[in-house]
Design a protein that fits this description.
Shape: globular
Region (Disordered): 1-25
Structural class: mainly alpha
Number of helices: 4
Mean pLDDT: 76
Largest sheet: 3 strands, antiparallel
Strand content: 5-15%
Biased composition (Low complexity): 1-10
Number of strands: 3
Low-confidence stretches: 1-16
Order of helices and strands: HHHHEEE
Length: 150
């Protein structure tokens, strides 16, 4: 068989639909609920990151397609806050207040959880133009299947 010739076995390649990224929602856009396919494999029972219940977004949703794009490159290095350095700088109270208890707890996770949360965050991130970052609900995202806003 010559290069470029099709196989006669009848095997078909699955064509992946591509979607054009949507613009970020306007201020009057209602908050979008994130949909999931199912509960997935419980945390810690699979070594495959994409089996995570946090990443099983419903097919044909913005989150599903964003995850498909960001899961390929190795962009997410595991990082933690260097609390010793923050303490030396005298900024512990300020940083804890800025992060809040939920985000601080999320940032104190181990490497596998970090990757799950980072992929979930980037797949669900929305910026709604409301005229400035000082408005409520300008930045929306999901962490641990819980919708959050800043």
């Amino acid at each position: 068989m010559m290069a470029g010739e099709g196989s006669s076995s009848g095997t078909k390649r699955k064509r992946r639909r591509t979607r054009v990224a949507r613009e970020q929602p306007a201020a009057d856009t209602p908050l979008r609920m994130v949909e999931y396919r199912d509960d997935g494999i419980p945390h810690g029972q699979s070594t495959v990151l994409l089996d995570s219940p946090l990443l099983l977004f419903a097919y044909d949703t913005d989150e599903y397609y964003r995850l498909d794009v960001i899961k390929k490159p190795k962009l997410l290095d595991f990082r933690r806050i260097d609390w010793d350095l923050v303490r030396q700088l005298g900024q512990v109270d300020r940083l804890e207040q800025l992060l809040g208890p939920k985000l601080r707890m999320a940032l104190d996770c181990d490497a596998p959880q970090y990757y799950e949360l980072a992929l979930e965050f980037h797949s669900t991130f929305q910026y709604r133009h409301l005229g400035g970052f000082d408005k409520p609900d300008v930045v929306l995202f999901v962490l641990g299947k819980k919708r959050s806003s800043i």
